Amino acid sequence: MPRPTKCRMVCRFPQTLEFTPAKGGEEKEPVILTVDEYETIRLIDREGLSQEQCSQRMQVARTTAQKIYDSARKKLADVLVDGRPLKIEGGEYRLCTGGNPFCGLSDCYRQELRQLFQKPKGVCIMRIAVTYENGQIYQHFGHTEQFKVYDVADGKVVSSQVVGTNGQGHGALAAVLSALQADILICGGIGGGAQVALASAGIRLYGGVTGDADAAVEALLAGTLAYVPDVQCGHHDGSCGGHRHGEDHECRHGRCND
Q: Is the pTM higher than 0.70?
């Protein structure tokens, strides 16, 4: 029986998921770059890490990191030489929530959040996060500067607090929510890439919601929250950015929850 593929640690979800040639090429079959392949390009070619350092960041063997990187470079060559569209999707990965000892970022905000928002062991807590501004649901996920976080037990809110995003946006926000151990996100507009990132982190989405944040949470708990299942972000850049308990590192259907 073959060994299961080990999930690769990814610091943040890509901000842009599709690239199309300026002239022609749209009709050609797109090249699919997986999220873990994208991460090797970011770490080695953008951040200047060695393959050994890359493998530590992604928590895989060096030979595995080299194989992923070689595949990514070959795909990028096909895009450039053949003028084909590029899509970033799929792969075996999990978003880092700040618990990576080889991160190399001593001031990683997610590490701080991970420590502050550990759920009590043996206590069933559902955690709801809401994009937040002045008591209202902020309408552009990728630019939100605050989440209001609610802990729910036995169907009732037992505590809440406002948490800043520390300037992180777009692809990093899904990892911030994972570090907060959020089970559910309520928001306004949200782009497709961010929705994929949330799904990969096992965070249930209720988008297209407006109005008072506290009232929205109460409506969700009462089963009366009005939301838009196929919500899209209407912001000018087009990329605004499951109930589980405890912590796990299980890889599900090519996506991993941390």
A: no
